[in-house]
Design brief:
- The longest helix has about 40 residues.
- The protein is an alpha+beta fold.
- The chain is built from 11 helices and 6 strands.
- β3 and β4 form a beta hairpin.
- The chain has 2 domains: about 240 residues, no CATH class; about 90 residues, no CATH class.
- α1 packs across α3, α7 runs antiparallel to α8 and α10 packs antiparallel against α11.
- Pfam families: LptF_LptG.
- Keywords: Cell membrane, Membrane, Transmembrane, Transmembrane helix.
- InterPro entries: LptG (IPR030923), LptG/LptF_permease (IPR005495).
- It comes from Marinomonas aquimarina.
Amino acid sequence: MRKLDRYIGMSVFLAVCLVAFVLLGLDFAITFIEEVKKVNEQYTAATLIQVLGLRIPGKLAEYLPVASLIGTLVGLGALASTSEITVMRAAGVPLWRLGFAACKPVLALALAGLLVAEYVSPIAEQKANLVDKLQVGVNSNFAITGGSWLKANGDYVYIDAADRQGKLYNITIYDREQDTLQAIHTARSATQESENTWTLHNIATSTFTEEQVIVSHAESQEWYSSLKANYLYLSTQEPDSLSLTQLYQYSSFLKEQGLNPGDYELSFWSKMFRPLSSLALVIVAISTIFGPLRSSTMGGRIFSGVLIGLAFQNTLYIMGRLSLVSSLPPLAGILLPILACFAIGLYLLKRRH
């Protein structure tokens, strides 16, 4: 029986890996075509390829549930088309055993994807975002390409990007007293020297008086602020580019500040339940292989898998977004579609048993 499990598992494993490779290749090609218009003297084609390459681990973790669905349809479908599944069933192998053998490699890949989403893709994705922002904003005085707006010591602060060491890039500080704008400070970068002291580098200051605007420049200047480097770094990142640990820490910080952490909680639960999503889709795939798709062609199975995967991902996305604008917790918004997918798959399997 172990040899049978390994045989089925290897068929599914290789099919899932092949599908994931194809999906990543298509995504890379389509994104390159869409983003190539950004290429210029500063943002070269090599930089674009570097950014897209750094985003591959995150895309891999994101595509694993759908790749598991299509790969299971392809792997088990190939065995069914050569009547090997029929022989196994005739030899007395129960349906649950075949399903269990198919689920084991998918579960291993899903857990590997979870580790990638925690330890590999956040570092790569955040580096890609940093390279992308600094290259795109190189000719922009205020570098409005994303980033984060904050309020510190009564002033409004815009930070374009930050790295993992706490260094800030392209900072704009709107110095004001009450409702009057006193000055605008723009700095190329900033480093934290102590708990409440920062050093701004390459500063341009526009000071507003009643008669004129005075522009001055300086190589460095101290900036007193209570902002914390670690949370500044997290605030400049999109929720999808953060690890599970970072999402949990920053959502807790937002709750302490009385702010809405909905986007970060939604991203946290989406990543946390990806292995469960993969298993739910595999259950549906197994139920269709032994049901309506048992005599279908390979192309028909792939097409059906794409449709089921798209329907599931869209339902997951819609329910997640609905949870942000309603009283439904993000956890429920992610978990309900997964449980519904499990229920449908188990129901179809029960009918075939």
